C-alpha cells in the first residue's frame, strides 16, 4: 500500500473513532432551538462515501449545509487538505463543530457559520454536502439550480431532490442500517434560442435548446427542415451534440458560459476540426425547473 493511501486509511480510522466517541459522550441538550431539521449525525461510513462520490480534488471548496457537529467539513479538510465550511442555525452545534475542528488540527482550513440555510451564499462552493429532509432539499433545489455555478457537485445523505434524478448513487451500511448517498452535478442552463456559426463561416444555424435538469434536447430552426440535432449530452458546463445536415455530420464539443458557448467541431465527412461559437438570445432563457423537453 502506498504511503499516501496508508495515511488516508489511518486518518479515516482515527476520525471514525473520534466522532463515534463524541456522539456517545454527548448527552441530550435542552437549550437547543427548535429547527426544521433535527440533529442526527451522519455515520462515518456515509461521510466517507459522500466524499468519495464527490471526487474531491486540490482547490475544491466544500460547503456542508446543516453541518451538525462538523464531521463532514472536518473529515474533508483532514483527508484532502481543502477549505471547508459548515452552516448551521444551532449555536450549540457551531460551537461543537469548532471544537472538533480544533481537536482534529484543521481549524485553519475549516470555518463554521451560524446562519439560515436559505440565506447562505452557495456560489463559492465546488462541492455541497447535506443531510437534511426531503422538504428542505426541495426548497433548496431552486436555489441550487439558479445560483450555483455549473459543475458543482451536490452530495446528499439519504434524501433525493424529487424529480431531479441523481447522476449517481450508492449504498453503505452502518450500525446494521442502509444509507443511500446521492450525487448530482449542477448543469448549465442551456435553454433558449442560440445563433451558432463556425469560425470560417462555412455553416450558420439557429438552434433551440429545451432542457429538464441535466437532460437537453436541441431543434434546428424550421427553415432547415433536413437538419437535425442528436446525441445531446450536458455535463456541468460541458456540452456535446451532433448536427446532421444533408451533406455531413458535425460533431460538436464545447463549454457554456452564460449566454455564450463554443468549442471545436469535427466535420464527419472530411475529418476537419473547426472552432465554433454560439450566442443566446437572453430573452429566451428559461428557469430550469420550469423548462421542459418537447
Structural commentary:
The protein has 294 residues and is of the alpha+beta class. The chain has 2 domains: 3-185, Rossmann fold; 192-284, Porin, CATH 2.40.160.90. Helices cover 24% and strands 35% of the residues. The protein is built from 5 helices and 15 strands. It has helices at residues 3-25, 44-54, 71-80, 91-104, 134-147, and strands at 61-65, 83-88, 110-114, 127-130, 153-157, 168-174, 177-185, 192-198, 204-212, 215-220, 228-235, 238-244, 249-257, 260-267, 273-280. The strands form 2 sheets. The protein has an 8-stranded antiparallel β-sheet, with no helix packed on it. Strand 4, helix 5 (134-147) and strand 5 form a beta-alpha-beta unit. Helix 1 (3-25) runs antiparallel to helix 3 (71-80) and helix 2 (44-54) packs across helix 3 (71-80). The chain starts with a helix and ends in a 14-residue tail after the last strand.
The CATH architecture of the largest domain is 3-Layer(aba) Sandwich
Structural class computed from helices and strand pairing: alpha+beta
CATH-wise, what's the superfamily of the largest domain?
A: Vaccinia Virus protein VP39
CATH topology of the largest domain: Rossmann fold
What is the number of beta strands?
A: 15
Distance between the termini: 52 Å
Number of domains: 2
Q: What is the strand and helix layout of this fold?
A:
Blueprint (H helix, E strand, L loop, with lengths): L2 H23 L18 H11 L6 E5 L5 H10 L2 E6 L2 H14 L5 E5 L12 E4 L3 H14 L5 E5 L10 E7 L2 E9 L6 E7 L5 E9 L2 E6 L7 E8 L2 E7 L4 E9 L2 E8 L5 E8 L14
Parallel strand pairs: 1-2, 1-4, 2-3, 4-5
Antiparallel strand pairs: 5-7, 6-7, 8-9, 8-15, 9-10, 11-12, 12-13, 13-14, 14-15
Helix pairs in contact: 1-3, 2-3
Amino acid at each position: 500500500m502506498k504511503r499516501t493511501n496508508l495515511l488516508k486509511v489511518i486518518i479515516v480510522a482515527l476520525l471514525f473513532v473520534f466522532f463515534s466517541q463524541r456522539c456517545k459522550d454527548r448527552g441530550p441538550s435542552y437549550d437547543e432551538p427548535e429547527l426544521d431539521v433535527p440533529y442526527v449525525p451522519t455515520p462515518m461510513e456515509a461521510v466517507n462515501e459522500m466524499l468519495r462520490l464527490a471526487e474531491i480534488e486540490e482547490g475544491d471548496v466544500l460547503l456542508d449545509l446543516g453541518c451538525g457537529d462538523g464531521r463532514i467539513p472536518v473529515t474533508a479538510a483532514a483527508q484532502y487538505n481543502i477549505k471547508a465550511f459548515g452552516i448551521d442555525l444551532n449555536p450549540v452545534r457551531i460551537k461543537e463543530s469548532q471544537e472538533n475542528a480544533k481537536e482534529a488540527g484543521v481549524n485553519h482550513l475549516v470555518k463554521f457559520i451560524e446562519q439560515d440555510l436559505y440565506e447562505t451564499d452557495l456560489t463559492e462552493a465546488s462541492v455541497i454536502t447535506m443531510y437534511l429532509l426531503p422538504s428542505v432539499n426541495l426548497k433548496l433545489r431552486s436555489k441550487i439550480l439558479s445560483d450555483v455555478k455549473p459543475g458543482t457537485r451536490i452530495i446528499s445523505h439519504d434524501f433525493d431532490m424529487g424529480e431531479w434524478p441523481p447522476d449517481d448513487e450508492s449504498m453503505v451500511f452502518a450500525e446494521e442500517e442502509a444509507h443511500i448517498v446521492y450525487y448530482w452535478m449542477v448543469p448549465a442552463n442551456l435553454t433558449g434560442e442560440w445563433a451558432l456559426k463556425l469560425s470560417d463561416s462555412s455553416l450558420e444555424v439557429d438552434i433551440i435548446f429545451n432542457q429538464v435538469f441535466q437532460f437537453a434536447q436541441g431543434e434546428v430552426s424550421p427553415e432547415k427542415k433536413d437538419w437535425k440535432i442528436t446525441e445531446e449530452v450536458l455535463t456541468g458546463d460541458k456540452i456535446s451534440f451532433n448536427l446532421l445536415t444533408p451533406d455531413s455530420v458535425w460533431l460538436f464539443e464545447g463549454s457554456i458560459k452564460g449566454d455564450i458557448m463554443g468549442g471545436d467541431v469535427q466535420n464527419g465527412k472530411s475529418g476537419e476540426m473547426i472552432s465554433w461559437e454560439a450566442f443566446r438570445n437572453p430573452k429566451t432563457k428559461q428557469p430550469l425547473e420550469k423548462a421542459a423537453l418537447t
